[in-house]
Structures are given as structure tokens and as C-alpha cells.
Amino acid sequence: MAEKQSVVIIGGGPAGLTAAWELVKDNSDAYDVTVLEASQEFGGISRTVKYNGNRMDIGGHRFFSKDDRIMQWWKEVLPLQGAPSYDDKKLGRHHELTEGGPDPEETDEVMLKRHRLSRIFWNQHFFDYPISLSPNTIKAMGLWLTMQAGFSYLWSCVHKLPEDNLENFYINRFGRKLYSMFFEGYTEKLWGRHPSEISADWGAQRVKGLNIWNILGNAFKKLMPNHKADNSKVETSLIEEFWYPKLGPGQLWEVVADNSKAHGAHIITGAKVTAIRTRDGKACGVDYVTENGETVSLDADQVISSMPLNHLVDALAQGGATVPENVVEVAHGLPFRDFVTVGLLVKKLRVKNTTSVPTLGNPPIVPDNWIYVQDPGYKVGRIQIFNNWSPYLVNDPDNTVWIGLEYFTAEGDDFWNMSEEEARKFAISEMIRMRVIDSADDVIDAHRERVPKAYPAYFDTYDRIDELTNWIDSLGNVYCVGRNGQHHYNNQDHSMATSMEAVENIKTGREDKANVWSVNTEKAYHESK
């Protein structure tokens, strides 16, 4: 029998756990797999935070992909619901249920089908998200502003700007007026930089084919008789239905970790990687420190890393690799945007449900998954309503509303360094000012969660990232996967796909890593069929 190849996987998020499962599910005799996770939780920013009987989804995770193998993969981990969920029953809501699928009221290991609704909050009005010139938008903007936006868009169709920054990217697709209203301030809030300072690559990855014509076309189809959503033919930002684990995204990754362990993978939490040892120009082992301060050394034939690239370079240097100065400079110049979520458990929302979509609550809450706060007068960037993602995230979904306020920040800045109580007071004051809640008396409980390195950013040394990735690839047996591992603003399906490509390379002996790096870089990749 051939000796097993030892594969060390750094990180227990979507990328790392996908790699582990792909290696052991059919090949447990071929690979000795170890996953090293620095925290005690699985899922990275796709984890589920548990607090006082309620659960928080960090950043909101729709389970939807244009990549059929990812959809099938998820369905194999958590089967689709075969009976109505709690809110389906209460609201008389109907989905296409999976024959023989589990009943969400009887088991936790189930994937729910969810209706997607997100809107923009701007100048005390709700707008469609993505922004569209619908009757509601025209009414909220007023005729004069709508005309300005329309003429501005027509001008942008004729006079294209060079797409050498994110500002020009947006103006070319939406016109300067809509850009200034809905994109400029929000982008600066998100990244802490003006869009003119940010690479257009970010827009190409996140917005891709989305523009006014796509939005209007999608809106027109909705008006047609017998309209039924076909998610395979619309841009990702326009999808109307998605899947969602009953107990939040972290539940799926906890199941994947358990499945991987059952097939022989070693999964170690509280393991902080300090060095990746090299020999003859390749990685040969990984050292990590346990929570007790003990250093453990593992041999490795292959290393799959989802750790941030600056940490990877430091670990390689610590393990004896001679890292060129320019590579160190690029790695340590790659910026991140950090993230704070403040969860508020409230008695009721002041914001009324004026849509035709029925919702739970007493009184009924607005049906949005997210509310995007494009208005620059508020620091909060998005508001999640966890009741609408899954009623099982909320201890009492009929009588309380569990919302998550998302703040984009920088680790160590004034907002990041606020105490729990200061963050709570700040969040409550913004919700009162926005007229989302009436008063602080409506707040029953609160929890603040800080997430460092949540969003890889596309400025500073990002335009030199090829110098870094080319050097890492020269090591041969080190694979960079996932959002932070590649410094790509990936969705979790893209992060999973990077690992699937890396595992395929290991299995087939392919040396070129272009397939691993190219996930979610092509304009049409996973976005349109």
C-alpha cells in the first residue's frame, strides 16, 4: 500500500474545511489530513455566534451559487427541507419542497429555502436594492431627481470613462447622479477610502454584469404573468431565492468538520500557526502553538493555506525561507477592512411593513434580510433582520426582533476600541435617529462582535500582488485558498471553489496554479450562464 500524503490545512473556514472534506470523503486511505484552526469555532466569518438563546450570522450568508457542484455539495451536507418551516406554516408560505427531505420542525440538520428581499435606506426612504428606476424609486426620489438621474445615465452610456478606479467603474454603469447618491458615500463608509482611490477590480468581482439594463430587465420580467424566479439566469445580486441552514451558516461548517473527522481528518482548534518549514524550495512542515503555549511540529507533503497572505509570508520566513524584500513589502502592504456587528434584541420595530410580503412578528416586521444604509449621515452600513433569515435564529420570533447592525471599521480605531456598553449605546442612538426603533426602552438585550480582517481591500500594494503570488507559487506545494488566503473579496462559494481546484491539483499532480487563482476573477465566472 502506498504511503499516505500528509496535507496540512491552515484555517477551519469554508475554504479550509472544503479542502479537508474533498481530500478525505473518497480518499481517506490516500491522504493524512490535518486542519489547524486558531479559534475554537468553525466557519471563519461564516460562523454562527450563539448568544443568550439567539444566534447571529456575521455578515449575512446566502447559500446560492451559479456553480452547480457547490449547490450539490451544500445539499449533500444539509438536505433541503421536505416540509414547511415554522414561519412557512405561520404565514401560509409555499416553497417547492424536496420529496423525502427533512422536516425543519423535527430536525436541525436541514437547509431552508428563503425568499430574498433587501432594500436601500436613503434620506428616510426605502429604495429597491439593487437600485432601479421603479415607481417606488421615482416616488421616493421625486420627478426632478429622477430626471437628473436618467439624463446622467444616458450621458454615461455615450461618454465612457477609463475604468482605472472604482468611481469610474460605477459611473459608467449607473451615471454620475446615481453614483453620487447611492455608491460614493456608501463605498467610502465601507472601505474608509474614496472610490477614486480603489481599484476597479473590486467592482468587477462584486458587481460584475450588474447595470441599469439588467436591473430594469429583471424588474420587467417580474411584472409578467406567471412570473417564476429562475436564479440560474440572473446576476447574483438579483437572485430572489436562496438556501439557508436552519441554525445559521456556522451550522453547515460544524457538520462538515464532524464529517471530515469521521473520515479520518485530524481537526485541531486553538492551533496558531507560527512557521511553515521549507527544504529544497518546498514546504516540508508546519509548526503551531497550542493554547497552553506548547509548540507542535507536523510534517507536510502539501500545505493548503487560508491564512492572510502577510501571516503566510511571515510563517514561511520563520520556517527558514528566504523571502525577497519586495514580497515582504507587498504582503504587509495589503490592506483589510475590519467589521463590527452589534446585535440588538428589540420588542418591536418602528419601521412598518408596507410591502405585500407577509412576515412574522407582533406587529409584523419588515420582510428584508438586509437593509443597506446608503445614507452617509449614519455610520451603520447594513442592518440584518435575523428573524427573516431563519426564525430558528431567534429564541422568540413572534414577540421579539433580533437585528444585527454592521459597522465597517479599522482594527484599533475609536469605534473598534469602544467598550461593549459604548457600542450598545451608539447603535441604539443610531436606530432611534433612523426611526427604526422608538426608544432605548424597546431594547431587551445587546451583543457586540468584532471581526478582524473581514474584507480584503483593493488599494495600497494590491496592484503589486502578482509579485507576491508568483513567489508563493514558486514553492510548488503551497496552495493559497479562500478570501484572505488569496486576498480576493470572495463569497463563500468562490472560497470553496478555490479549495476544490487546489485539491484537484494535488490529486492529479498539476503544477500550474492558474486555476486556483482564477476563481472569481473572470467577469462572467459563476455569475452568468
Topology:
Blueprint: E1 5-10, H1 14-24, E2 31-37, E3 48-51, E4 54-57, H2 68-77, H3 86-91, E5 111-115, E6 118-122, E7 125-128, H4 135-141, H5 143-158, H6 166-191, H7 201-206, H8 212-223, E8 241-245, H9 249-262, E9 266-269, E10 272-279, E11 282-289, E12 295-299, E13 302-305, H10 309-318, H11 325-333, E14 336-346, E15 370-373, E16 382-385, H12 386-389, E17 401-409, H13 420-433, E18 443-456, H14 465-473, E19 478-480, H15 483-486, H16 492-508, H17 514-517
Parallel strand pairs: 1-2, 1-13, 2-9, 6-15, 13-19
Antiparallel strand pairs: 3-4, 5-8, 6-7, 10-11, 11-12, 14-17, 14-18, 15-16, 16-17
Helix pairs in contact: 1-9, 1-16, 4-5, 5-6, 10-11, 11-14
Describe the structure.
This protein is α/β, with parallel strands linked by helices. The protein has three domains: 5-44 and 252-334 and 461-517, 3-Layer(bba) Sandwich (FAD/NAD(P)-binding domain); 124-227, protoporphyrinogen ix oxidase, domain 3 (Orthogonal Bundle), CATH 1.10.3110; 336-456, Protoporphyrinogen oxidase, mitochondrial, domain 2 (Polyamine Oxidase, Chain A, domain 2, Alpha-Beta Complex). The protein has helices spanning 14-24, 68-77, 86-91, 135-141, 143-158, 166-191, 201-206, 212-223, 249-262, 309-318, 325-333, 386-389, 420-433, 465-473, 483-486, 492-508, 514-517, and strands at 5-10, 31-37, 48-51, 54-57, 111-115, 118-122, 125-128, 241-245, 266-269, 272-279, 282-289, 295-299, 302-305, 336-346, 370-373, 382-385, 401-409, 443-456, 478-480. The strands form five sheets. The chain has a seven-stranded mixed beta sheet. The protein has a five-stranded parallel beta sheet with strand order 9-2-1-13-19, with helices on one face. A hairpin with a 2-residue loop joins strand 10 and strand 11 (282-289). The longest helix is centred in the middle third of the chain and has 26 residues, at 166-191. InterPro entries: Amino_oxidase (IPR002937), FAD/NAD-bd_sf (IPR036188).
